[in-house]
Each structure stands twice: as C-alpha cells, then as structure tokens.
Specification:
Blueprint (H helix, E strand, L loop, with lengths): L1 H6 L2 H6 L1 E9 L2 E9 L5 E14 L4 E13 L3 H18 L1 H6 L15
C-alpha cells in the first residue's frame, strides 16, 4: 500500500516526464510532456492550463483550470493527420478573422506536422 501511495505523489509524476515543452499563448499555457508508462512505453500528455481570476479587485483569487489529453504512440499518425486536416481547413477559411485580431498573433505559414 505504501508503494502505491509513493508512486502517486507529485514528485513521482514530475520524474515520469522525459521531455517537456511549454507553449505560452495569451491566458493559456500548453504543456507537451513526453512520459513513460509502467511498460516503459513513451506517450504524449498534452495539458492546457488556463488562469482564472475571481473574487474582488481588492482580494483576487487566482486559480488554474487544467485539461489533459493523453496521446499514445499507436494513435500518433491518425491524430497528426486529423490535426493537419483541421488546421488546413482553418487556414483556408478564416484568414480574414486572423488579420482582424492582431492581439492574437498567428503563424499561418506551414501548418503541416510530420512525425
């Protein structure tokens, strides 16, 4: 029982990260973490962290809302294919809205992702 609890501590979870990339985007930060499961297989954990401020101006309460997606190796090709198709659709159909909102810079060149 002690081993199970030891493996679920925050320190243990951080040690499981093999590689990490943080992408800051406005109020959100996306974390791309490569982790290893118990079978020593690598997988991708994508986390969106969004800063939420509530409370009053005098005493604000800052919280972070997090959402996770786990992407396993056997799904990489299908995921990347679907992501490329979706990004291409957005690129072709929303160029006007990207130009209208300069506060959110977007790199519209080369959405193609290869693995």
């Amino acid at each position: 029982m002690e081993d199970v609890m030891k493996n679920n501590t925050p320190e243990r979870k951080e040690k499981d990260i093999i590689f990490s990339k943080a992408i800051k985007a406005g109020k959100r930060i996306y974390y791309l973490d490569v982790k290893k499961n118990k079978k020593e297989e690598l997988f991708l954990a994508i986390t969106e962290s969004k800063k939420i401020i509530s409370g009053t101006f005098e005493s604000p309460v800052v919280q972070f809302e997090k959402h996770k997606i786990f992407l396993y190796r056997e799904d990489f090709d299908k995921f990347v294919s679907g992501l490329n198709e979706t990004l291409q659709f957005i690129k072709e159909n929303s160029s006007a809205s990207i130009e209208e909102n300069p506060a959110e810079p977007a790199d519209t060149a080369g959405y193609e992702i290869e693995i």
